[in-house]
Structures are given as C-alpha cells and as structure tokens.
Amino acid sequence: MSHPYLEEAVAAEGTASPSAPHGFKISHKVLDWITGDRMQLLNITDRINEVVRRSGIRDGIVHLQSLHTTTGVFLSEWQDALIEDVKKFLDDLILREAYYRHNDPDHSDCERRNADSHLRGMLMGQTLSLQVRNAKVLLGTWQSIILAEFDGPRSRSVAGQVSGI
Q1: Which pLDDT does position 22 carry in this prediction?
Q2: What digits encode the pLDDT tens for the residues 17-67?
Q3: Which whole number is the average pLDDT over 104-131?
Q4: CA distance 88 to 106
Q5: Would you list the domain boundaries of the chain?
Q6: Of 109, 113, 121, 105, whose CA–CA distance to 67 is shortest?
Q7: Homologous superfamily in CATH for domain 4-164
C-alpha cells in the first residue's frame, strides 16, 4: 500500500512533506569510512548521532543499513579488551583457512577468497533500527553503535534513515 505523503518526504531528502501529518519527516544520509585492516571494528555512534541531530527529528526511529555483505552493524560496549575479545571470538568461530566453496575456483568466480567475511557479516547482521529520543539515538549506558569490517581494508558505506517528528 502506497502512502503519498511518505513518497513526497522520501523524494525531498531531509524535509517534511507539506501533507505529512504532525510534522512527520524522513531524512537520509550515506556515511563513508575507509578501513585499514582486514577485520576492524569502528565506533560510529558519534557520526550517527550527528546525522540524527542534523535531521531535525526529535522523536522517531533511525534505521542503519550496511551497504556491504562483508560488514556488520551491531551494538556493544566500546571497551578495548572487549573489542579484542569480539575479534578473537569471530576468528575462532569462523576460520579464515577453512574450506569454503565460495573460495574454490571450481565452484565460484569470487577472486577475493572471502567466504569467512561473508559468514561473519551474516552472523553479526547488516541492519539496526534504534529509537530516537530528544534528537539523539537512545542507547543504554554502555552501548555503542559499531561498524564491523570483515574484508578490508576497503571503502565502506552505511545508509541511515531517520524518520519521525
């Protein structure tokens, strides 16, 4: 089912549609990073909060979507020892050197040999939807938004959509 006021709001990035009820707005932004390591975790909380702040939306939802199958977006505590534990856990759980059909030229045309990166991305997930309250992402005391690179170094993008009033 189509909603004309939503289509108008989407067409006019970051602005409210004149017919949107009660000041409902949708704002879009694609954020880019360049990673430096094959597996790297980045705290993107501040940049996401800046996108929310600039949207002008005080209360609503922010939806984040990685635009890559070999990355992940998730919530965790941002603490050095825990970040290293997460990376070790993923290395131990999904071995890079294991046999994967995706890496086998007899079964796949992928030259990157990155099946482990795809599996890590699937495990961690590539989307998050979070509440926006008072023009900020609602997070628990120790929660941070983390972008996980599993096939770097590369250029990476996360699409953000903020909707609400």
Answers
A1: 73
A2: 455 667 899 999 999 999 999 999 999 999 999 999 999 999 999 999 999
A3: 97
A4: 30
A5: 4-164
A6: 121
A7: YjbQ-like (2.60.120.460)
